[in-house]
Amino acid sequence: MALMKAADDRLSKGIGTGEFQAVYWPSRGQEAIAAAMGVTLRTDDQLVTTYRGLHDLIGKGVPLEEIYGEMMGRTVGASRGKGGTMHIAKPEAGVMLSTGIVGAGPPVAVGLAMAAKRKGLDRVTVVSFGDGATNTGSFHEAANMAALWDLPVVFVCQNNLYAEMTPTSDTMKIAHVADRAAGYGMPGVRVDGNDPVAVTEALAEAVGRARTGAGPTLLECVTFRFRGHYFGDRMKYIPPEQLEAAKAADPVPRFRALLLEAGVCTDDELARVDEGALTAVEDALRTVMAAPAPAVDELDRDVYAHPIAFPV
Questions:
Q1: pLDDT of residue 33 exceeding 90
Q2: Cα–Cα distance between 127 and 5 in angstroms, integer?
Q3: What domains does the chain contain, in order, with CATH numbers?
């Protein structure tokens, strides 16, 4: 969680001051959900996430320099700087897709889960998406198929209460996303998405069900995003008092305080965690800024199984 926060903060600082250029959709405030996925899933478990996936990628083990490198179009990126922020993937870490299309992830996750089941693997696929995605036809088709075939997939809705700039109260008649699960005969669970322990417990149960052949679960994690839909979003659509209350429930300092109170860590130990996160971010950024942009000969690489030389 500390690394996710530090990585997001540093991007905001660098873009805001003109130090570097990148396009990104902040995940600040949603760290507890991604951290829970990171400690619950195995390396061979697969993840499908979205363009707002910086925290998810970190949680699943994608090196920070490969994430930053992709965002800034450098050769050290996960796709050698050609995928951009919306399309970061690293199959070796189980990250199969980051999609820029709202609601496009669930059908892909269902396909991955179907493949695992047909191969007799005990691998689980988790698909992460926002509340807005649950209003798309692709989500409902995927949920229906996953439930019908008892596929090993977990649908994780990171409900930050806004679908881009529209509050969920304007897009759904029901109050809870988790209630949609009943229509497909799968469990629907709603948890505090700012509590990493609560998310971990609920996710572990859902992953366990999926891994043992009991089928999918819809897990709704209620959270908030602190920086709007995209970096630079002035957030005029969010009532100031709502944003203030959300920041007061910031999951990172909240969990830090819990660890101190429970005697799990000392203040010095937690300070070293924070310092380590800041150092890791700066090290990754130096590596990325020193790397070149993709060369012209990268244009047709990874496009064809057998590359054809075209004049440029």
A1: yes
A2: 21
A3: 2-292 (3.40.50.970)
Asked if residue 1 lies in contact with residue 31, where contact means CB atoms within 8 angstroms, the answer is yes
According to DSSP, the β-strands at 162-163 and 46-50 are unpaired
Q: Mind listing the pLDDT tens digit for each residue in 121-160?
A: 999 999 999 999 999 999 999 999 999 999 999 999 999 9
Torsion of CA 52, 53, 55, 56, to 10 degrees: 140
Closest CA to 159 of 46, 32, 8: 32
**Pairing assessment for the beta strands 166-167 and 46-50 based on DSSP bridges:** unpaired
Contact 188, 182 (CB under 8 A): yes
Task: For residue 183, give Cα distances in angstroms to 140, 178, 218, 254.
Answer: 9, 10, 11, 35
Can you read off the two tokens belonging to residue 10? 């540093």
Triad 249, 250, 253: Cα angle to 5° = 110
